[in-house]
Amino acid sequence: MSKEVGITVSKNDNFSEWYTQVVIKTELVDYAPVKGLIVLRPDGYSIWESIKESLDKKLKETGHRNGFLPVLIPESLLAKEKEHFEGLNPEVFWVTQSGNSEIGDRLALRPTSETLAYSLFSKWIRSWRDLPLKINFWNSALRAEIKGTKPFLRTSEFLWQEGHTVHATKDEAEKEVADILELYKKTIEEELAVPVITGKKSEKDKFVGAVYTDTLESLMPDGKALQMGTSHFLGQNFSKPFDVKYLDENNVETFAWQTSWGVSWRLIGGMIMIHGDDKGLVLPPKVAPIQVVIIPIYYSNDEKENVLQTACQIKDSLSNNDIRVHLDDREQLTPGFKFNDWEMKGIPIRIEIGPKDIAKNQAVLVRRHNQTKTSIEMDSLTEKISSELKNIQKEMFDAAKKILDERVVKISQYQQFKEELDNGKMIDCSWCGNQTCEDKIKEETGADLRVIPSNNTKAETCIYCKNSGTTNVLFARGY
């Protein structure tokens, strides 16, 4: 990665290097001493906190409560759900020693918490009065990602939330799965300004051990799809091996119905890729650590006091209106350097204030997402900035949605499928439902069946085998 100041490659020319430079040079993350791990710096963690606070509020409003689980899981516990365990085993980190002593049962560093949580649920749940049980955990998970790592997108440890719920009926559990998917969609689109496509995973790509998996997918500028979150209907696949059952109102013992669901800091990576440009980050106002930066401009000590005093007044006014604002009064740097620095960090609004502006009772407002400038009367500055932040959030989502819509193309011929895939498109096509066709397409093109959309259209002939299609699906290469 280049050590020069600023982003030195174009997003269009070298997307991977551009992304790496952006996340490192804007001080969101740094690399840890252990391969595959990253350190989340304060600005990066602030974005995660914004996502967490928004999602946490929605979850609590819908009756979910937070808990905490330990990071170590006995191997004997993981093995109780054989299919689930075998699917995760290649990614598991194992603890085999304590101090200088070998331990008996190997301990897994939590890849996900189903087995651990459900062994406890079987103790906590006795009757229908204990249901529904709706618990969320904010924690980290560890999965061995040694090759092809990328900050936020693919690391060996990642921050996430994982929800686990237990219900008396199948219908209630399936409603939970759908409600959570909609809650995720609202958070991702309204907070991060990232448009998503919702639907189901194929049988091949569903969560190991689930009856089915609902997913949220988005398409990145390099033509690769990114899974933004998942919600799983587990049916009774875990309640039976883990003995999660209850006495119903007729005193009949019944196995419960379960769900699990989660999103991770991968959302931050998707947001960066969707909105960033050749200058660096472009942050949606709702999650930006700083929403407004004020740059005082003066060229002599005579001007300095008055400009700084006015800048402080603007800062106080914005802060009093719950706007996250920073006054950049670093004396050793030129205004031009500051402009570039804050543009790279993606701050939604920059306020420039100098002697000439003060004389006119105005300030200059610069929008990061479209680089437009406006002179604003000082008396209406706070009100105008509040309005602008809302406008920027909407404009960023609308622009991203327009691009996504344009890059999802409906295709009926396999040769055209391959051509449009190479052009970075997501392919809308018919599929017969046979995994053989899904596997062949993956083998020949590198594209996965990303999602069976919720708003499915009538199927025609399968894109690969030309037999009757059972459903329309979206294919894309993915992260």
What secondary-structure arrangement, pairings included, does this model have?
Elements: H1 15-25, E1 29-31, E2 38-40, H2 42-61, E3 65-67, E4 72-74, H3 75-78, H4 82-88, E5 93-98, E6 101-109, H5 114-124, E7 133-142, E8 157-167, H6 170-191, E9 197-200, E10 212-219, E11 224-235, E12 245-247, E13 253-255, E14 257-264, H7 266-275, E15 292-296, H8 301-319, E16 325-327, H9 335-344, E17 349-353, H10 355-359, E18 362-367, E19 373-377, H11 381-407, E20 408-410, H12 414-422, E21 426-431, H13 435-445, E22 448-453, E23 471-478
Parallel strand pairs: 3-7, 11-23, 15-16, 15-17, 20-21
Antiparallel strand pairs: 1-2, 4-6, 5-6, 7-8, 8-14, 9-10, 9-22, 10-11, 11-14, 12-13, 17-18, 18-19, 21-23, 22-23
